[in-house]
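Progress report, Aim 2. The chain analyzed during this reporting quarter is listed below.
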Amino acid sequence: MWTPVRPLPNTFIVNIGDILEIITNGIYRSVEHRAIVNSEKERLSIATFHGPRFGTDIGPSPSLVTDHTPPKFKRIGVEEYFRGLFSRELQGKSYLEAMRIQQCNENEEKTE
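Predicted structure tokens for the chain:
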């Protein structure tokens, strides 16, 4: 279910992307969002994207991974990440979920 958000006048809305959720180990959450046309009032939208360089990798920042906060996402190369992202159908947050490390009970091994 979509929830309308009414922004304050003269403000910016910043949507956090999936890569930032991975890097922050889930501290900052990306959100599914969409924009709809308002036939009564003019609106200016500028979409900008920033991502890591090819040839590097992405995963939770080492400074955010501890015994109490284990990694929640896999570490993979940027090329592999985008190849996987763009090869999937648009099904919500399915690729972010594919990046998630499955946590098990203490008696079981962690699986990816």
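Residues 19 and 51 are 8 Å apart (CA to CA). The chain is about 20% helix and 5% strand. These observations will guide the mutagenesis work planned for the next reporting period.
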